[in-house]
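Figure 2 data, in text form.
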Amino acid sequence: MRAFVTGGTGFIGSNLVRLLLQQGYEVKVLVRSSSRLDNLDSLNIETIEGNLNDSNLSQQMQGCQVLFHVAAHYSLWQASKKQLYQDNVLGTRNILQAAHQAGIERVVYTSSVAAIGVGKNGTPVNEAHQSPVNQLVGDYKKSKYYAEQEAVKAFQLGLDLVIVNPSTPIGAWDLKPTPTGEIIVRFLHRKMPFYVDTGLNIIDVKDVAWGHLLALEKGNSGDRYILGNQNITLKALLEKLSLITGLPAPQKTIPYWIPYTVAWLDEKVLSLFGKQPSIPVDGVKMSRQKMYYDATKAITELGLPQSSIDLALEDAVNWFSSNSDR
């Protein structure tokens, strides 16, 4: 079996590529000319240079039976709005059309719980929930919602496609890093004197990779599956990191208005004078909501693993500690 993978240089994608190779797949990875290839070093794969909006993607997929469309532009900066829609929405439309033309037999599309939204007052939600798009915070979440609608349209037009919605993965190969990876890095560098009162759903990134493969093998076409594990407050997450590392966890919360004011000045005012903003306004807005999810459907229908979150955090700590130069 030969798989075509987009987003293979990223966090979820590189873990998926490794799993596919372990399971005997031949793997072809679409990479941008600007992509760092560190996560794919020494792997027995074929790389194709291009991007999601190329016109020749159907030719590039020839010889592949399945597509894992993992790639997405992730940014919480409001200045990224145009690129978010170009890559996430139009890019998804283009590559799924190309997959249809190329005769790809089955597609796993990586959406996000960001596209689903959140429940009221921190209530965990499942795949049946959908927040109105105007209630999704920021253009990243909105772009993932509209990209998922492109996947639904492609399914309706005859493409055999399954949607997976990862929550917050943690583990190794978080190269950029992700916002949660950034929290771990800041914790390791003793740059987290305070924390915000928020919560999220976390899952071992290796389980997310397995969720993709299990969705390919067992998922109902047209369905979506939340790939998640444990709902946890940020405070509890930091306390777990403290137990793993021996470093003290921050003990005091910070009022919402302080990071919001800093972010607004950073992104709206100081950036006009050439300062690189450090805190996105949309990121602070998201922290007001507890982002809790129920992954029962993926666990029961796909057999999604629920590996230890403590071990996943340990993997992340070890990886970041060993790759601080990256």
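Caption note: The mean pLDDT is 90.
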